[in-house]
Amino acid sequence: MVDFVGWAMPINYGSQIDEHHSVRSGAGMFDVSHMTVVDIRGSEARPFLSRLLANDVARLKTRGKALYSCMLNEAGGVIDDLITYFMDENWFRMVVNAATRDKGLAWLEWQADRFSVAITEHHELAMIAVQGPEARGAVHSLLPADAVDDLLEIKPFTAIEHGNLFIARTGYTGEDGYEILLPDGEAGPFWNALLDAGVKPCGLGARDTLRLEAGMNLYGQDMDEDVTPLESGLAWTVAMKDDRQFIGRPALERQQAAGLRNKLVGLVLEGRGVLRPLQPVMTAAGPGLTTSGTFSPTLQRAIAFARVPVGAQDRCTVDIRGKELPARIVQPPFVRNGKTCDGIL
Amino acid sequence: MSDIPSDLLYRESHEWVRQDEDGTVTIGISDHAQAQLGDMVFVELPEPGMSYEQGDACAVVESVKAASDIYAPLTGEVIEANSALEDSPELVNTDPYGDGWLFRMQLANAAELDGLLTPEAYAEQAES
């Protein structure tokens, strides 16, 4: 067990690699109750989020629909990345990172001051992520027929409510599955029922290797307040086509006008070894640095994200304990739905 | 409870030492250490011919979690490294005292053996 911002969490229950494979080929579950659930209620909930988020909540039109977005400061730096669910015009639900909870909530409260909204954090909710090709079936086996009918209907990045359960078809692994919010008193029995249904418990270690393979950023490693989403592989989450004035937009426009210096890319190590965060990278366009790195159990190769000059392409070297080892520059994701993506190997 | 064979000597940093009949020693990491480190994915071993002082970092084992230095438990010259670990680093997990051995050394000073931990002393340390 390790301490993660006050939460005692297991890195692994047994073999971290077995846990990883179980999510790629079967079903695994993660206790992610450390994630912070925040409800935004009020008549100005939508205008508030339209101002607060770099992605555009105008994309949220139907109940349960989810949107991934960064929350930026005035300089365009990333305060947090989060998922926002549309419930109704007076109610949006956010799931934000535990590590950034305090500053994120403080920012929300500060920015909400000018809007008619109420912000409520839900300490009483636990969260279990069930992920993998067999994950949805395992969850369905525990639920009544009407809930299953609803779940069979929903598309990825959508949530339904059933009694005390809030079930979203989202995740952080690159596999199909659910993230389930439920009252903390019910989480233990629900976890045990999933265990009986054949779902394998997985720790933070597998969560990290899975999300890295899936090309998903980790806040605090791959982006933070000192970088913008544009240099963090997250330009796709920034909605700038119309003239919506969200916080950080002027800074992003200035950065675009001046020309981006850096970008976030994927690396695949050519030979043996393991990539780790903060290893120096050398490209033909200049130096860079890995932000996340690991051994990919699916690829059986070391992979990483690295922030490198925008002109970098094809090949680079990574300094591992003083040795310059060759790596290829690729476009993440590395793995999706159990399969290696094109151009990775 | 981890396995601590009674016929080996140990170092605080979790290496084990087996005295072989030809006067050389075989070195690996303990069951306790491999369990703490988790699934091994890469092992960087010393080149035969290299000499190390007791306590020098001379190898690296990398699990999915982290990279860890391995220290020469004794002063001497490396005479063989376990090349099977190149393709199968997981042997360190599955058979830490057998096929998962790391390297062999010719000792420069056999008296250093007396300073290593007995199985009982190591068990006490590993449990604390």
What does this protein structure show overall?
The complex is a heterodimer of chains A (345) and B (128). Chain A has 345 residues and is an alpha+beta fold. Chain A folds into two domains: 2-211, Gyrase A, domain 2 (2-Layer Sandwich), CATH 3.30.1360; 261-345, Elongation Factor Tu (Ef-tu), domain 3, CATH 2.40.30.110. Chain A is 23% helix and 34% strand. Chain A has a six-stranded mixed beta sheet with strand order 10-11-12-9-3-13. In chain A, strands 14-17-16-15-18-19 form a six-stranded antiparallel beta barrel. The mean pLDDT of chain A is 97. The relative contact order of chain B is 0.26. The longest helix of chain B has 9 residues, at 119-127. Chain B has four helices and nine strands; from the N terminus they run βββαβββββααβα. Chain B has a single domain (9-107), classed as OB fold (Dihydrolipoamide Acetyltransferase, E2P) (Beta Barrel), CATH 2.40.50. The radius of gyration of chain B is 13 Å and the shape is globular. In chain B, strand 6 (57-63) and strand 7 form a beta hairpin. Chain B has helices spanning 31-37, 84-87, 91-94, 119-127; strands spanning 9-10, 15-19, 25-29, 40-44, 51-52, 57-63, 67-71, 76-81, 103-107. With 128 residues, chain B is an alpha+beta fold. The interface between A and B is medium-sized, with 16 and 12 residues.
SSE series of chain A: EEHEEHEEEHEEHHEEEHEHHEEEEEEEE
Mean pLDDT of chain B: 96
Would you tell me the structural class of the helices and strands of chain B?
Answer: alpha+beta
SSE succession of chain B: EEEHEEEEEHHEH
Supply the CATH class of chain B: Mainly Beta
Radius of gyration of chain B: 13 Å
Structural class of chain A: alpha+beta
So what's the oligomer here? heterodimer
Number of domains of chain B: 1
In this structure, how is the largest beta sheet of chain B organized?
6 strands, antiparallel
Specify which chain pair forms the largest interface.
A-B, 16 and 12 residues
Q: How many strand segments of chain B? A: 9
Biggest sheet architecture of chain A:
6 strands, mixed
CATH topology of the largest domain in chain A: Gyrase A, domain 2
Architecture per CATH nomenclature, i.e. the level-2 architecture of the largest domain in chain A: 2-Layer Sandwich
Report mean pLDDT of chain A, rounded to a whole number.
Answer: 97
Q: What is the radius of gyration of chain A?
A: 20 Å
Strand content bin of chain A: 25-35%
